[in-house]
Amino acid sequence: MTMEPYQIREDFIRYGVRKEAKKNQYLFDPSREGCDNICFLDEGIAALTRINDDGEEHIYLYFGEKRLVGFANALVKHFPYDWQRYITPSPFWITAKTNCVYYSMREKQFESMMDSSPYFTQCVLGATTLNYLELVNKIQWMMDGDKTAQFCKWLLTYCIKKQGKSMIPKAFSFVEVANYLGMHPVTVSRIARKLRETGILAREDGCLIIQDEEKLRAMTMLQNS
């Protein structure tokens, strides 16, 4: 008999609490006393954010659906390592960029699952690796990537599936995407317009719709000459 592949989502449903967050609400807020929960983002898009000294929100990373989020502090506590010699963990927030549905698990339960289930730990390691690679890719895009390729990669990475379509929620403005990718909003608007003209993108009810995913993936292979 073939066993079903392990799904960490099922553990979060079993041991966590289902919650909802409206756009701009926090899934994780370190300023709130007792906030030590780890989240599985089931629906929607969230972001790893921080407010700078000027009161402006800075986005480090977006999280799409079916992602494990907010577990860095738990890992720092769980593993015996002299973190202070290398880096002092900074406070961060997980902010809903669209309406989100997620499952929240207490830190003690998370640590217990890490100790007792190799499959659970494997998923946490996979989520850690994915976050690392996406951050490295973002830095690479901003330093020496082709701007069209950067935007196309962003579209593919952070689109969501809804009603059989791959779409970018209307919550994302070209200004926000441009700030995230280190571009000017006019540049992002110009690239999006060209993608619509070639039939790769369309706009429906204020959302960008990916109409030709294969061509969009081909566009991510562009390199600066």
TrEMBL record:
InterPro entries: cNMP-bd_dom (IPR000595), cNMP-bd_dom_sf (IPR018490), HTH_CRP (IPR012318), RmlC-like_jellyroll (IPR014710), WH-like_DNA-bd_sf (IPR036388), WH_DNA-bd_sf (IPR036390). CDD domains: CAP_ED (cd00038). It holds the Pfam family HTH_Crp_2. SUPFAM superfamilies: cAMP-binding domain-like, Winged helix' DNA-binding domain. It comes from the Bacteria. Residues 152-219 form the HTH crp-type domain. Keywords: DNA-binding, Transcription, Transcription regulation. Gene3D superfamilies: Jelly Rolls, Winged helix-like DNA-binding domain superfamily/Winged helix DNA-binding domain. Residues 19-116 form the Cyclic nucleotide-binding domain. This is Crp/Fnr family transcriptional regulator. It comes from Hungatella hominis.
